[in-house]
Amino acid sequence: MNFFSSNFKLGILGGGQLGKMILYNTRKFDIYTCVLDPSNEAPSKIACNEFYQGNLMDYDTVVAFGRKVNTLTIEIENVNVDALETLEKEGVTVYPSSKTLRTIQNKAKQKLFYIDNNIPTAEFSRFAYTSEIREALNNGGLELPFVWKSAQFGYDGNGVKVIRQLNDLEGLPNVECITEKMIPFKNELAVIVARNADGEVKTFPVVEMEFHPEANQVEYVICPARIDETVAKKAQEVALQTSKAFNHVGLLAVEMFQTQDDHILVNEVAPRPHNSGHQTIEASYTSQFEQHLRAILNLPLGKTDSKVGGIMVNLVGAENYTGDVVYENIESIMKMDGVTPHIYGKKQTRPFRKMGHVTIVDKDINTARQIAEQVKNTIKVISK
Amino acid sequence: MNFFSSNFKLGILGGGQLGKMILYNTRKFDIYTCVLDPSNEAPSKIACNEFYQGNLMDYDTVVAFGRKVNTLTIEIENVNVDALETLEKEGVTVYPSSKTLRTIQNKAKQKLFYIDNNIPTAEFSRFAYTSEIREALNNGGLELPFVWKSAQFGYDGNGVKVIRQLNDLEGLPNVECITEKMIPFKNELAVIVARNADGEVKTFPVVEMEFHPEANQVEYVICPARIDETVAKKAQEVALQTSKAFNHVGLLAVEMFQTQDDHILVNEVAPRPHNSGHQTIEASYTSQFEQHLRAILNLPLGKTDSKVGGIMVNLVGAENYTGDVVYENIESIMKMDGVTPHIYGKKQTRPFRKMGHVTIVDKDINTARQIAEQVKNTIKVISK
User: Fold this and answer.
1) What is the pLDDT of residues A27-64, one digit of tens each?
2) Which of A116, B60, B234, B290 has the highest Cβ tally under 10 A?
3) B147 reaches A (C-beta below 8 A)
4) Domain check: are B202 and B298 in the same one?
5) Residue span of the structural domain in which B200 resides
6) Does ipTM come in above 0.90?
């Protein structure tokens, strides 16, 4: 198959900011793309060759879309997996596979998968309904505090809650869920692993993530992580072990905890380009978006070393602002050395909504970190 | 003016491969774009917000298009300059200005401009018609060999011919032209200068160009140029002098000769992103395309240092192949470290047609140069 011709069609489920960044690379390689997204104003609508509006969770919609393309990938996990399975049977190449996605979509299944494959992860319990948790607490089968996670459709800032006292359970949806032991970690780390159909595997360097304490969203991603070489090596090994267990094709972003005694525990994974890899656009020889494409098209994987140190700052809507977005002081941050804003193009802001990200690169990661702090203190995502 | 909002519209005259690479950056900044191009299959057609098909040399077409936008720029010089002048009078911001473009569009005017501004350039003569050249040769006012250049609408590989003997004049169009003294140069160099409306100026490092002997097209662009620091400094100074004389806004790519005695002579300029700056996408802190946008939108200019050494190889159609394009061995070059192909998306190849480019980056420029040679010897642009 020659991908560099208009006979080949790549389908992408989801046309958000990740899809938009994938599309820069399909355009660079002149690969024909079709995108399906529920919103008629999806950021990917321009820059793909064919755009379709439709529900990613609807079986018929996804099957009909998938039949138009040769290879199908995703930019979001919440898609109809039965449809992917049908398409696979019909001969469409689907990466990540329906099997990989089925395991990842459900956090309970994901955790059981780690246990089955001897992948280190935080202790957890599984509940068919949130309402069962109180009983487990009464029985002594569960202890406060813990992290509650909805089994399905969870993502950063949603579907996850730290439960410190009984009251915290109130208002949670009564759905399938897991409870996880709180990990008093030193660092949150991530490694993005790429694997192509031929089995070639490459990892990006270990990154360190700093979370916003309230919004539970990544605030800084720092590459390389400022950790000991031995810990970095261990994180790489655990990420590779996880990747091997999934036998995925495409990217697998593996989020991990570095515990107080320097053990590595897998938190969760995403089988696609990930927020923890945005700095690769400016910092790496190969961006995560290009690498995802190389992997799913079974092309040789690109070099994953860094050219320079890179830091990513998420641009999220400021508290107390809702409405037409304004990027206050964006010109000021563009005066700073090595600073690149990425604006996703969402017209409306609201508190903690991801509106874009800013990459800061410098040969010295500590200089980059200082500039990142300045960036964070200068730009503000507000409304008119 | 807040560019980061949908009220602002940027117009681009020309929707070719340069426009396509500008559009990645408008999308990154979420800037609304309108593109005018004669071809309904222009590479920029997808990824801009509004696409218009029309003749860039037609006054009415360009005026009508320009009235839709707030700021107008170009990706090609051959546009109707009277239309730009009208638009400027009507209040549209046009960068480069009609004045800059008028001087650059005509090579005779461009050369006179260098003389007027004490910018070093090769000796030349101006002719209203090519047919006048024979008389000048007979009179002794001109000596063989020389370089013939059409005054208007010339570009690499077209409108330029080395005249070694009288016969070589045959078949040339009988148009306004210049003849230039042949410069036995050591190197062809280029510097891209960016200038915004506030007068902020930044230069990219000096690059070295190797031309294909037959096609008169750039074969390698090497950044940084492998020249003495004093020569590099002189080239930077001449480029800045040229930029200052034009008082342009946006990019100015200044192509220069380094003579045998290490003088710098300006060859020609382009007031836009340029082939000699493609490697900035992968090698520089700020790409030339982002820098052009920053300049014309009067934003702070980005850092122009290189992260790593960069080499650009043009992908041109192989001799003896015309028809539906095939990129033979593209997968082999993608196995090499730090290699990124850019495929422009033209469906038909013909000998020496620019079909794309490949960037090779490495911390060591000599390693990059070796890989570039491998790339050039491996990939072949042929037809089915």
Assistant:
1) 999 999 999 999 999 999 999 999 999 999 999 999 99
2) B290
3) no
4) yes
5) 185-383
6) yes
